[in-house]
Amino acid sequence: MKANSGDRPVIRPLPVMDRARQVTDALADYVEEARLKAGDRLPAERELMAALAVGRSTIREAIRHFQALGVIETRKGSGTYLLKPVSRATIHMPLSFDTAHLRDALLQTLEVRRGIECEAGMVAARRRTAKDLVVIEEKLEEMERVHLEKGTSGPEDLAFHLAVYDATHNPLFRQLLEQMRGTFERFWEHPFDRQDFARRSFPFHRTLFDAIAAGDPEAARAETLKILDIVEEDIKEMSK
After folding, report:
1. Check: CATH 2.160.10.10 for 102-237?
2. If 128 and its partner were Cys, which of 32, 91, 132, 185 is the partner (CB 3.0–4.6 Å)?
């Protein structure tokens, strides 16, 4: 709709709602209307794709969002199950950044991440179970394999860190840290168009795992700081 006078601003059409958010809203409504309880199984991926008329990647993005909130879990070969009741009020934690000044936004986020991520490593070192260590090491070995093969391993790096957050047994760590990381991924795939961003931090993922496996919170904190210090150095260097 346009204003009558040429010197008045134009009222622009509303943007189309993000498809993944539409799916999370629809799933939250389904859980409420079906009165699902903890332990109940959600519809299969193919069923959701057909019912909602969206692609597999959109369904999986919505599922990952629920997993980050700690309200569902996917069991290999079995399906996706509800861990706790969910509604629209529990599924959105929006963060906003000024992406016109990406360097400053990255550094500001890193300040917050440093505190939360170091604490996550320390808590994981105290609370990790034998099962947690198996999962973290599996993610680490896959990250190392891909990194040595391709020289970069973004998705595998994220999977490793998510496994560490899960080992805290506090879903807020994963929710907050994944949300921060996910917000930026909407705007860039490789920071400053550099495949080698934070590549120097690669060895410290193994030493972080070793600290968590040893049940040493202070060592886990120190290794996490080494990773984040390299990220900060690369942000400053690559954005000159």
Report:
1. no
2. 132
